[in-house]
Amino acid sequence: MANGKVWFITGTSRGFGRLWAEAALERGDSVAATARDKASIAPLTEKYGDRVLAIALDVTDRSACFNAVAAAAARFGRLDVVVNNAGYGQFGAIEEISEKEARDQIETNVFGALWVTQAAIPIMRAQHSGHILQVSSIGGVTTFPNVGMYHASKWALEGFSESLAQEVKPFGIYVTLIEPAGYETDWAGSSAKRATTNPVYDEMRKLPRPTANRGNPAATAEAILKVVDAAEPPLRLFLGTMPLPLIKQRYEQRLATWEQWKDVADKAQGN
Fold first, then answer.
1. What is the pLDDT of residue 52?
2. Phi-psi bin for 172: left (phi > 0), alpha (psi -120 to 50), beta?
3. Which residues are catalytic?
4. Structural domains of the chain, with CATH
């Protein structure tokens, strides 16, 4: 039986997954760290020894997800925190996205999180405790052009996770959607995929986008530790200063539109 919390984190080769795994290990917790390339996890094993279980995992493989989660529980005796972090950004206008690009984005960002979540729930339910962190995005609550398929994946993650939170709360399991703003990670670099461009969208790609100082990824670790240690963790947590003002503005616009069209909506009631 491990001392401290036991974490299962996907996508620990770099970025948020790696930083949060290191933060957990530094304070004495144990981590089942997964990545497509198991070799990328070797430095964690070398530094933290048997408090790390390194697992090669492609999250699009449902059976592999179940086996990995079971291996973590068998090794450490329980499962306290699951972080569904594995994912990537798909760039391209909706018309430009190929069938393969669309399916691959959903397979990783939605089904990958779903399979790991499904594997973890019975273990956490038996413990009557646990916390599932779904790494969403500011792009899970609002949208920008040229990343529509990515938004589709994160909105799907948000949708099933909000339902999940209601379903598992009676079993002592919490769910938190982590919604980062822009950070100095490799999300838009080598980790991203890009559709073949159609020149008709060249002007769209030149349009100004909301700007903000990109955050320091290392600063997020303290926030994540605070959330997993909270007695009543939130369903949603923004990371960074940009999301809240932007979302307030965009939700006000939504409400104004619904109010503007209220008469049409009311007549559609039919009685």
1. 98
2. left
3. 136, 150, 154
4. 6-244 (3.40.50.720)
